[in-house]
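for the writeup, i need someone to sanity check this before i put it in the appendix. the sequnce is what the collaborator sent (i think, or maybe the updated version? ugh). structure was predicted straight from it, no edits. if anything looks off just tell me and ill rerun, i have time this weekend
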Amino acid sequence: MENTATLTKPVAMIFDMDGTLFQTETLLLPAYHQLFDILREEGHYEGETPDEELMLGCLGMLLDDIWKKVIPNGTPAAHRRADELLLLLELEGLNNEAAVLYPEVKETLEELHRRGVRLFIASNGLEHYVKGIAKARGIMPLFEGIYSAGEHGTASKVDLVRLLLEQHNIQDAWMVGDRSSDVEAGKENGQTVIGCQYAGFGGKQELKGSDVIIQSFSQLLKHYDQTMPSR
């Protein structure tokens, strides 16, 4: 998996947000518990808060699909309220310095930007959440485009990445992410996939099909430097 002999330097890199750039649990888990406290108070939910691992295991999925797993017996109104509360609580939580990017993410992105790589984000999250993280953590100016399922209404990350590639006329990119949906999005669109294994949210087969797997974000620069220029 570490062999980069067949890789070529990309024109662009497309990054997932949660579990790739951003340590999601540092923001999500406090908001998650507050969310269920409010749902109980408002009569939308009864019983104990579902295990944190259930929510963390759903990262990378569309919100509609997340709530079907986390609150399977919830009403449509409860799911809509959960959407609203999660966004509100997470945006508030961005003011907390404990909600952080992974180590060396900002520095690595800055170096790639200096080298002329076109940088993008493609996330299944809500628009204000994804852009809110990029803005709050000072990486927004590094990206040429930030794409989210919430903004574009795409049914899958495959569709979201396809839209990004078409709108920016990109033929050669690396899709960088930590979930099977990222692998699928890259491969279905004919792109190289760099799997990120440092978050640990998925199982052993989560990144199957990746061209390279990295154990820390800073390794991305090493692989970029070792590749051959594209023809």
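The radius of gyration is 18 Å. Residues 1-5 have pLDDT under 50 and may be disordered.
thx in advance!!
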